[in-house]
Amino acid sequence: MRTSSDTANPPDSRIAPVSPETDRPKKQLRVDPASSRAVPHVLFVIDQLCQLGGAERVLLEIVRRMPRDRFRCSVATFKSDLQISALETLAVPLHVLPLRKTYDFSALKMAFRLHKVIRKENVSVVHTFFETSDLWAAPIAKLSGVPVIVSSRRDMGILRTHKHHLAYSWVNPIFHRVLAVSDEVRFYGISHDRVPPSRIETLYNGVDLAELDAKALEFDARALLGLPPQTPVISTLANIRKVKGIDVLLRTASIVCRQVPDAKFLIVGRTLESKTMAELESLVKELNLGDNVHFLCPRENPYPVLRASNVFCLPSRSEGFSNALIEAMGCGLPVVATRVGGNPEAVREGKEGFLVASEDAEAMARQILLLLSQREMALRMGREARATVETRFSMEEMMRRLTSLYSELLAARNA
């Protein structure tokens, strides 16, 4: 069975070495040990915490916002970059279980360690994210007697192999509830994974707009990048992977820049596929976009870049539900996104922006040019986008539904 590390890029030199026999304790609130045992303990298990993609950031936000009077938390992962500032301030235990394969002696050793954590901490809920956590950690949780086991499904199975599909058919009955990040992912879980509809529900990601607004003002991205106030800026937040469709965005940029030569396209994200990045750099040269396209270093706070933009573009070939999309909408940006995955659940055609077919650079360019030329329409769509996030994708609603789910499942198991 493939683990996330089996297909990852060579280890980043910034990843701190982790002793296989030690967990890394985190700063914690002072809690009376006796009373804390009565509070249900939620153990989150995620494949990696080496870069903060959408799922990683959502998990850390959930942990940070979990009501301590109702739940205790800890996190387990198989690989971690301990220099990420969000981990340095994580106020719960972080257990790093080095796991390269799921079927050797080391995996058996890590399974025993996970079992010890579960038993020692009296874990009530195990909540898994991604394939290895679903397929390896969930059975261990079941065998360890965890009362409630929950899985988060965040994509359309784009990273799965044939072995994954077979394994999921065996593991899915273990989960008391599967949380899909969009209705489209929920439908995938029902139709492909054969999860009964009663055991899979949609839980959208949430955005804290007050925090987003504050972070958006931390620095002036236009001044930092030397962009005049009148320069049209189109941005996207995406790690460099083929599935993110950045090559389509570059072809879109080529069309846009014929009519708006001073337009700037800002691409913020980490390179996860070096071959894809090399292809993109070659395409920039081929299309003569060196002055118009800028690849920016990954930022833990990308919101000032969004604040500096006129339009947000999401050219993905596949999406479960895009955090970047609703964050851009929260920043009041009109959006142009591909009609894939959960994107149509966030963007209504002609309301918050426009939806186009995947791979259609001409349609994407046409809608971007429309938004750049029709300022009042763009502002109206930006306001509509912000209002949609306020009403449908708030962090408060996400946390309310999640904690209620934990309580309901635990109550049902104790009945």
Proportion of β residues? 5-15%
| Shape-level CATH architecture of the largest domain | 3-Layer(aba) Sandwich
Quaternary structure type = single chain
Low-confidence stretches: 1-22, 24-35
Q: What are its keywords?
A:
7-stranded parallel β-sheet; 6-stranded parallel β-sheet; disordered N terminus; alpha/beta; globular; Rossmann fold; 415 residues; 17 helices; 13 strands
In short:
The protein has 415 residues and is α/β, with parallel strands linked by helices.
What does the model show?
The chain is of the alpha/beta class and 415 residues long. It folds into two domains: 4-205 and 395-414, Glycogen Phosphorylase B (Rossmann fold), CATH 3.40.50; 209-392, Rossmann fold (3-Layer(aba) Sandwich). Helices cover 42% and strands 15% of the residues. The protein contains 17 helices and 13 strands. The protein has a seven-stranded parallel β-sheet with strand order 3-2-1-4-5-6-7, with helices on both faces. A six-stranded parallel β-sheet has the order 10-9-8-11-12-13, with helices on both faces. Strand 4 (123-129), helix 5 and strand 5 form a beta-alpha-beta unit. It is globular. The relative contact order is 0.11.
Helix and strand topology:
Blueprint: H1 33-36, E1 41-46, H2 54-65, E2 72-77, H3 85-88, E3 94-96, H4 105-120, E4 123-129, H5 131-143, E5 148-153, H6 162-171, E6 177-180, H7 183-191, E7 200-202, H8 209-216, H9 221-225, E8 233-237, H10 246-259, E9 264-268, H11 274-286, E10 293-296, H12 303-307, E11 311-314, H13 323-330, E12 335-338, H14 343-346, E13 353-356, H15 361-373, H16 375-392, H17 395-414
Helix pairs in contact: 4-5, 5-6, 10-15, 13-16
